Structures are given as structure tokens and as C-alpha cells.
Amino acid sequence: MKLREGPASFVDGETIEVGGRRFRAKRIFVCVGSHPAVPPIPGLRDVDYLTNETLFSLDRLPESLIILGGGAIGCEMGQAFARLGTRVSIAHATSTSCRTATRRRGASSSRCSRRKGSR
Ligand SMILES: Cc1cc2nc3c(=O)[nH]c(=O)nc-3n(C[C@H](O)[C@H](O)[C@H](O)COP(=O)(O)OP(=O)(O)OC[C@H]3O[C@@H](n4cnc5c(N)ncnc54)[C@H](O)[C@@H]3O)c2cc1C
User: Taking the model in full, what pTM does it have?
Assistant: First the structure.
């Protein structure tokens, strides 16, 4: 396996270029990470919201924080900020958080988040 450091760009459907060198393969697997999608939540585009990419750039601890979405990452971030001293509220579309978990685990996670300081 060869490791070449640097930004890659496509030359054609079977060739990429990195640092002036070209690499060819029949198949090219793109795994360059992802960006948060901005969902069509009314009013969201009009406010200065944070995402998982900007949350960690805060230079001071916010006094309060609302997290939209109580999935795994929302719960994880909520708990982390609550433990650091921020007043955290999690808004979640269903009655239990961590929607990928089973209903029972989600309910238990909701209780756990409340104990750890999230509302
Ligand atoms: C807050 C948060 C918490 C998470 N916690 C967990 C967890 O506890 N457990 C878990 O399993 N997952 C967790 N995840 C998810 C996990 O981080 C991602 O699923 C994982 O990093 C994705 O890996 P990836 O290789 O697809 O992308 P990345 O890790 O983002 O790697 C992509 C790489 O591609 C490079 N790249 C981009 N463009 C180019 C280009 N043109 N040429 C060459 N290189 C390029 C980038 O520099 C980067 O190094 C978390 C994610 C977030 C946001």
C-alpha cells in the first residue's frame, strides 16, 4: 500500500493527482469525510447557529446551550457541556433521546442525561 500526503484532485475517472504525482485505479473510493447538513428548520438560516465543526472553536464556555437533536452526538455534546458547567437543553422530535437506540435504552439515556445536567 502506498501513502501519499496532500490534497487529491481528479484528472479523469480513473486517475487522481497528489503533489504532482498521478495514481491510476479502476475504482476510486472517496472517503474524505463529511460536513453537517443544514436541515430545513424554520428560522435556522437567520440565526448564528453552531455545528459539530464550529462547536469546538468556541473560545469560552457558553452560559447556556440548546442542542437540536437528541441522537448519539447531540446527547454526547450535551453531556460534555453540561459537565463543564453550561446550562444545556436538548430538543428532540420524539419522546426518547438517542433515536438509533431501542426505546428502552433511549428512555434510560434521557434519564441519564437529566441526571448529568441536561434538560
Ligand atoms: C462530535 C463527533 C463525535 C463523534 N464521535 C464518534 C465516536 O465516538 N465513535 C465513532 O465511531 N465515530 C464518532 N464520530 C464519527 C466519526 O468521527 C466519523 O464517522 C469518522 O471520522 C468518519 O471517518 P472518515 O474517514 O469517513 O472521515 P474523516 O475522519 O473526516 O477523514 C477524511 C480525511 O480525508 C481528508 N481529505 C479531504 N479532502 C481530501 C482531498 N481532496 N484529498 C485528500 N484527502 C482529503 C481529510 O483531510 C481527512 O483527513 C463522531 C463525529 C463527530 C462529529
Answer: 0.68
